[in-house]
Write a structure and sequence with these properties.
homodimer; 402 residues; alpha/beta; Carbamate kinase; VC0802-like; 8-stranded mixed beta sheet; 6-stranded antiparallel beta sheet; 11 helices; 18 strands
Amino acid sequence: MAKKILKFGGTSVGTIERIQHVANIIKKEYDSGSQIIAVVSAMSGKTNELINLSKNIANDFNKRELDVLLSSGEQVTCALLAGALIELKINAKSWLNWQIPILTEGEHSNARIVNMNLDKVNNFLKKGVAVIPGFQGISKNGDITTIGRGGSDATAVAIAKLFNADSCEIYTDVDGVFSTDPNKIPVAKKIEKISFDEMLELSSLGAKVMQSSAVQTAMMYDIPLEVRSTFTDRKGTKIFSQQNIDYTKSVTGVAYSKDDAKITLIGVEDKPGVAANIFEPLNKAQINVDMVIQNISSDQSTTDITFTIKRDVLKKTKEILESNQNIKYKDLTHNDKVAKISIVGAGMVSTPGVTYRMFRGLAEEQINILAISTSEIKLSVIIDEENTLNAVKKLHTIFELN
Amino acid sequence: MAKKILKFGGTSVGTIERIQHVANIIKKEYDSGSQIIAVVSAMSGKTNELINLSKNIANDFNKRELDVLLSSGEQVTCALLAGALIELKINAKSWLNWQIPILTEGEHSNARIVNMNLDKVNNFLKKGVAVIPGFQGISKNGDITTIGRGGSDATAVAIAKLFNADSCEIYTDVDGVFSTDPNKIPVAKKIEKISFDEMLELSSLGAKVMQSSAVQTAMMYDIPLEVRSTFTDRKGTKIFSQQNIDYTKSVTGVAYSKDDAKITLIGVEDKPGVAANIFEPLNKAQINVDMVIQNISSDQSTTDITFTIKRDVLKKTKEILESNQNIKYKDLTHNDKVAKISIVGAGMVSTPGVTYRMFRGLAEEQINILAISTSEIKLSVIIDEENTLNAVKKLHTIFELN
């Protein structure tokens, strides 16, 4: 008997009608003979509503109490969904974080699941559907904690791992993972199968379908995922480990990021420790550096270092670089209107000419490349921001993603 | 060091501003050197909102899940109040039902508190304020339960008892217990001190300030209560055991009930078991009989029995009495437009003439008395409903309650 984890996000349980619809989805799976654990988020808008209540009391509302407050959101959904399932004559039961319990480590609002007691829930699964709140657990002191990165997706994947589930389905408000942003590029196409690595590259680049940390956990424990829509019957996107995918295309998707800025330090001394000198103070100032490219130095004694950051920290970054005595360079140039375009595909490694085809395509559109960075499954370029959509469309066509 | 239980009802914590106000009340008490446990209800309207959500799924929503759903309301208030206290630099902590735990017995939605583990909270009280949700607990199976009768008041009194508290203050949206309904009778006056017995008689008769079952528990364990307003600095009403009150007045308050109906069975056989025959089928049909009066029979073989019920069950009651073969009587009369007026006062026993003064007062107003019933601290009459306000005003004046 297959054991399935079905996770439903906030918009999927946003109203009573939607909760009843979700109950029907679960009933279908349950009636077909699977053991089901449903993991639910708070009803959409609920978590923000609770955060706003807390902010009216204090901007730095006590973190322990904030977790007590926020965890009530998923508790409400759990009870409503369990009740809706019972109304469909399915034996269902909500299991709150402390009733299982879901044990977490780490600080409030940023905990991670480390263990669960499986026996009670496993026994119950033989006779009914368990409904479990996402996004939360308890600490070893018995305090309520919430899970920082990944939220309810992370709970679903952790449960899938601990319960040795056969699959983990993430129900959301989109049809799956797309080859690029379907809201901006109408020819964007739903991807049927994608590897964990590709999914990570795409999600960190803006395809915000699933939280990266949850995908990472699934990859680590090889738990197959499926992202699909709560509101249609269409198949979603299956996410596997790379070896289980037969690649017919070299490129799976085109991602792009907005609001980027580029800084180039020209004439940096080319010796060990220089890069560390540059990035240490930025890290201390909590400035997130994205792409880093170091060009080969021409005169064998200096080099040029280019990196990208978010546009809103450009001023702060420049100030740090210009005031810090340990950072030596001849000149600093910056461009605050750039975008990063990436093609992602696990099939890239084995397909010759992908790099060349990308560069030629951009050249055909008269798009100048300001910097290039490559990895095993990703090729990113920095271009002027105004060319973003043109570039994405062109690459989408070149790599036959339409 | 005094240990105080402060309970805040739904309207007292109905908005963020009110929760902050409540935090200030607690701070004042805490700074004056008391150990404080705050017991809170859900924000006003919240419980009904949650009930409505459940009713949109099923009218007979599963009771276990309903308790999971409803208990989230007090959880939210707990977290917000604890956060507001911390913002005032008071070490505060929410303790949920399962964290203490508050153990209950009895079925879902109608459980009662049987025990708590005091050690952890008692230890914490030495260094801060504990905030505890009213209205809920957990069963011995670890399921969330809610407390039927008395709700959060019952939690406050149970905690006062278990923690051996010096006092239990019930903060609400009225100034205290009044000599009669202040909304209808403007000369109604706040009562400074009242005995548990009087409070019970008054609250069961319509002065809905505190739940009767909570008052009963307080009486049983002799826990002094104070009912007072969250929104003014005025003193409230203190509720003690009778022997601690020095009565200067014979009558403490005048209560009245609405929507009553009266039934009289004429010519009932006067022998043992007859009354039981009459009221057993009514009890089975869950008809709540209020006042029962049996007149002295004139012919020594039959008697007349009068009783009152709520008006909306009059038809059903008549049908039962008329169709049941075990109930024998000569005639049945009824009046569906009656009211019950009661004077309540622990000082009545020791004051001669109270009964006479009541009857004379009503006669002066040309009000006919349809039935009379007396107890140690209460004297009730049934009158035509249209005379209700006149009667209450007159009695209020006669017994110098204005």
